Amino acid sequence: MFWKIKTCLAGALLLPAIGATELRNIMYLTNQHEIFPGDTQTAPVTHVAMSFMRPHVFNRPEGSHDWPAMWQTVEATRAQFRDGVKVLIAIGGWGDTEGFSDAARTAEGQKRWAANVAAMVKDTGADGVDIDWEYPGGNGEDYKTVPNEEKAWEIEAYPKFLGEIRTALGANKIISAAVPGKVGDMLAFTADTLPTIMQHVDFLNVMTYDMMNRRDNVTKHHTGVKLSIEALDAYIDRGARAKDLNLGFAFYVKWFKTQHEPCLANPIGCPTVLMEDPETGADLGQAGAFAWADQTPDWLSASWQAALTWGKYDPDDGSYYHWDENLDVWWTFDTARAVRNKFQSIVRSKGVGGVFAWELGSDGPQFSRWQALNKGVDFANRHHSQKHEL
To answer: Is the pLDDT of residue 15 over 60?
Structure first.
């Protein structure tokens, strides 16, 4: 049973109000997919991040209350989930960084940007913001055209920027940040900067997906357990507490073109073709992604059906994969089984404070990963409660 994203359910069975000891369960929410699970009011979701407002909007002079309209109001979003859910406005997103950089360059710009964000939060009734400046310091979408050296100043500016947002919003509003999952991209998250960053944010959403992207040259699991643990360990080693980190789940599939002969023996770790322009970083069309709710591109349809039929679970890494030797395509994706197993292999073993997924509507129409994620959260909450009762 599915419903349109703008529809508010009435009279649904509601869970008790959200408690402080629950595992955080955060859903990014967009209007990209029209289908939506019908059980959101009985699911253990604690936070919803409405995506996205663009960062340049807040570089205007202070005093404005004319904010870009989102596809629905915060109030309508809140009504779609259980009592007590926190609704955040996510700002930024992949590639949308110029507005952040413009604001963070000066102390005056930081204060102005933060004051406007605080005004927006008040006007919309949101519970806070999710800062999706995903790659401060470099390695973003424009890393070839704007070298990292030209963004090195952002590493020092980023904690100050978050500090101004905290000052403007006050202690009672939520600030989260979406942060890189690949260790090589954690340029702004060092042992020197991370303790200060954690003073200003409530938690970090560690993007433990896209761990393989078109910059890579060998196949790997884009949501792999080993790489996810490596990412969490890096943040913990540099000064974050495990309970302030959220593990990311991807409700979408990725594919990559590979070489042929080297992959015949073992497709894991075998070489890909060149996937981006070495000078501009432009996508060469040799890799891609689509949501479970999306229609498969025609030329990949048969290959994707083969991946669903013959895909293998890598017990060493807790991920599903398939290599199509006819098209030389590497598929990497999570199933409900992979989601469930990550609660034992990562969530419990590392003691993280929560999970999140990009993005809710992407998992339709079956919503099997969504359901597995909620069951994992429910189990973790019961286990935590039982320990306290003992």
So the answer is: no
Would you say how long the chain is, in residues? 390
Distance in angstroms between the alpha carbons of the first and the last residue of the chain: 39
Q: Label residues 311-345 b or e (16+ Cβ within 10 Å = b).
A: beebeebbbbbbbbeebbbbbbbbbbebbbbbbeb
Q: How high is the mean pLDDT of the chain?
A: 93
Q: Which residue has the tokens 């109030």?
A: 75
- Do strands 319-324 and 329-333 pair parallel, antiparallel, or not at all (unpaired)? antiparallel
For residue 299 the two structure tokens come to 């030329």
Residue 319 lies inside a defined structural domain of this protein: no
What's the half-sphere exposure (Cβ side, CA atoms, 13 Å) at 211?
29
User: In CATH, what number is assigned to the domain containing residue 219?
Assistant: 3.20.20.80
For residues 77 and 87, give the distance between their C-alpha atoms in angstroms, rounded to a whole number: 7
Taking only the tens place, the pLDDT of each residue in 85-116 is 999 999 999 889 999 999 999 999 999 999 99
Tracing tokens 């992604």 back to the chain, one arrives at 289
Q: Is 349 domain-assigned?
A: yes
Instruction: Answer whether residue 288 is part of any domain.
Output: no
Looking from the CA of 9 toward its CB, the CA atoms found within 13 Å total 20
- Provide the pLDDT for residue 292: 97
Please report whether residue 258 resides in a domain: no
Question: Would you place residue 275 in the very low, low, confident or very high pLDDT band (cuts 50, 70, 90)?
Answer: very high
Report how many domains make up the chain: 1
Q: Using only C-alpha atoms, what is the Rg of the chain?
A: 21
